[in-house]
Write a structure and sequence with these properties.
This is PGG domain-containing protein. This protein has 133 residues and is an all-alpha fold. It has 4 helices and no strands. It is elongated and about 65 Å long. It starts with 5 loop residues before the first helix and ends with a helix.
């Protein structure tokens, strides 16, 4: 691959390295002993996981494209287009959902929307979780 198409090989190495390092970062965060139950840490982990999964998907398709025979290129192109479109739609749904959640949180924080009514059980459970940290 490095001799046949050096540009594709460079992309493969970049995306594969990003996926590998992002995966290692998540593992390190999880075993580090940091208080990861806080929302900020969960958001950081979620973003790192998105980066890792996306880079791994790109690496997969690059390697599939370069290892498939010429006779299968048209079928591979169709499968790749459908897969990438599906992946992007799913990513957009998740991204929009998180943007909506973040906007609601900001509006509640600054008093534009009333706080959610919380049951006493939820408050008790939250208090127990803070003692463990």
């Amino acid at each position: 691959m490095a001799y046949k198409d050096p540009i594709q090989y460079g992309l493969f190495m970049i995306f594969n390295t990003i996926a590998f390092l992002a995966s290692l970062s998540i593992i390190l965060l999880l075993v580090s002993g940091l208080p990861l139950k806080r929302r900020r840490w969960m958001w950081v982990q979620m973003v790192i996981m998105w980066i890792s999964i996306t880079a791994q998907v790109l690496t997969y398709f690059l390697s599939l494209r370069n290892m498939s025979p010429e006779s299968a290129q048209s079928t591979l192109r169709e499968v790749t287009e459908i897969s990438v479109l599906t992946w992007l739609c799913l990513m957009m749904v998740v991204f929009i959902g998180n943007v909506v959640r973040m906007n609601l949180w900001i509006l509640r924080k600054y008093g534009y929307i009333k706080e959610k009514e919380r049951k006493q059980e939820d408050i008790d459970d939250e208090g127990e979780g803070e003692e463990e940290e």
